[in-house]
Amino acid sequence: MLSQKVTGYWTAVFDYETTAEDELSLRKGDRVEVLSKDSLVSGDEGWWTGMIEDRVGIFPSNYVVLQIDFSELALEEMIGVGGFGKVYRAIWKGKEVAVKAARRDPDEDVSQTLESVHQEAKLFAMLRHPNIMGLLGVCLQEPNLCLVMEYARGGPLNWALAGKRIPPHTLVDWAVQIARAMLYLHCQAIVPVIHRDLKSSNSKTLDLMPGVFKSFDAKVVSSFGRPNKVVSLSQRSTQRHTWRARVSGSRRARVRNGRWA
Question: Where is the Protein kinase domain positioned along the sequence (predicted)?
Answer without folding.
Answer: 73-261
